[in-house]
Amino acid sequence: MRRHATPDPSAEQPLRTRLARHLVLWLERVGLGLAAGAGTLGVLRWAGTSWTASLWIAGAIAVVVPVAAWLASTVPGHEDGAR
Asked: 1 near 79, Cβ under 8 Å?
């Protein structure tokens, strides 16, 4: 079992590498949000929802998805041997 004081292995990497990984991670989250928003917009327009309502809902989805992905990343994961 890891101790809380154990440093993160990525903390030993150079600053440039850590920043690049952080940037790519957030770009992936934002891209996922945009894809979810665009898909939602398409489905809502196909269903006959007005443009205004569709844009508001799709915009909300495009914001909620990256925030939910960030929030999920703060939850501790399973240990390799735990069930």
From this structure: yes
> pTM for the whole thing?
0.73
C-alpha to C-alpha distance for 74 and 48, rounded to whole angstroms: 38
Q: How far is it, in rounded angstroms, from Cα 18 to Cα 31?
A: 20
Helix (H, G, I), strand (E, B) or coil at 11: helix
User: Per residue in 2-13, pLDDT tens?
Assistant: 556 666 666 678
Contact 61, 42 (CB under 8 A): no
Find the DSSP H helices in the chain. 15-46, 51-73
